[in-house]
Amino acid sequence: MKKINRRNFLKYSSALSLAGVGMSSSAKAQPENILSPDRMGVLVDTTQCVGCRNCEWACKTSHNIPADDIEKFHNRDIFKTFRRPGNDSYTVVNEFKNKKNELIPINVKYQCMHCDKPACVSACIVGAFTKKETGAIVWDGDKCIGCRYCMVACPFQIPTYNFEAAFKPNINKCDFCYEERTSKGLMPACVEICPVEALTYGSRTELIRVARQRIKRYPDRYKNHIYGEKEVGGTSWMYLTSPSADFQYLQLPKQLERTAPGVSESIQHGIFAYFIPPVALYAWLGGLMWLSKRRKDILKDVDLTDEIEGGK
Ligand code: SF4
Ligand code: SF4
Ligand code: SF4
After folding, report:
1. Whose CA is nearest to atom 8 of ligand 1?
2. Pairing state of beta strands 40-45 and 171-172?
3. Domain limits of the chain?
């Protein structure tokens, strides 16, 4: 077998680096982030939500995720534990104590917020996330390389990774029912099934107008704040709540000083500041390990030679 000396190693590693640069340049796609003035959204009115979890059931069934009978979703024991969306539930509803009226809890539905300046889109180095004209952020399994930067970048902890499918990257999150519904002008499954109109689907601009109107008309019922209008640069899903609750108490993160893409881009730019693509990085790390092992072997040889010579 051909021996690899240090010079050869450097030659191979720089060739690998160049291959990496080539690969990364072709694999790195420009993120697509269409910000249409007509993009759609959903207004979640937490003062209306009754915590029936019909939306969870509808989301599962419309995405072919196995689900119990809808009646089982009405069991409120589940609210004892706070849940986040996961691989088998792209939306979940939680319950919070209402500090003003303990008889009426506050229920909050969570899912991808379909951000206007999406951290997942800007963090993804291969352009696997796209913001569509409708407002939906969708994920493309054919492009994804499973790096999971999107999971780190998302300020709402939304994308989840299916570790059972380790060899086929599988990121799961709400897709705003893009394929089957919203791209065809239909409303999302969760909105359609909601029995109390806690979810309103419409153009984002119109939803902001509706939300402002509700706040103005019922100041005792609503806090004067539309969550998502400005947070992280604006989101397609927005929330109203009662004056006694604040959004952080409802586990919706505080307004960030920098928009999420600003943060994720700095993570990405830190890694790619000198455009060190993953293959080059691995080659370099591998090289360091090889050199360190080689050094140890040489020192061992020298020690042994010394011992032999000294023993003469
Ligand atoms: S909530 Fe997270 S996953 Fe959804 S669009 Fe925003 S950054 Fe992306
Ligand atoms: S919009 Fe569709 S995918 Fe998203 S939570 Fe609602 S039903 Fe689920
Ligand atoms: S279906 Fe409507 S009322 Fe029922 S939990 Fe979902 S958002 Fe709330």
Report:
1. 120
2. unpaired
3. 1-27+278-312, 32-118+173-265
Note the pTM of the prediction, 2 decimals. Answer: 0.78
Taken in order 289, 292, 298, 304, the sign of the CA dihedral is negative
In this structure, which topology does domain 32-118+173-265 adopt according to CATH?
Answer: Alpha-Beta Plaits (3.30.70)
pLDDT at 73: 97
For the chain, the residue count is: 312
Token pair belonging to 75? 């069991």
85 lines ligand 1 (CB under 6 A): no
Q: What is the 3-state secondary structure (H, E, C) of 69-111?
A: CHHHHHCHHHHHCCCCCECCECCEEEEECCCCCCCCCEEEEEC
- Ligand 2 atom showing the smallest separation from residue 112 Cα: 4
Pocket test for ligand 3, best of 42, 52, 96, 104 (most atoms within 8 A of CB): 52
Q: What is the pLDDT of residue 224?
A: 98
Tokens of 208: 């902001």
Output the CA 225–ligand 3 centroid distance in Å. Answer: 21
- In this predicted structure, what is the pLDDT of residue 166? 63
For 217-226, the pLDDT digits (tens) are 999 999 999 9
Q: Please report where in the chains the tokens 């881009």 appear, as a residue.
A: 265
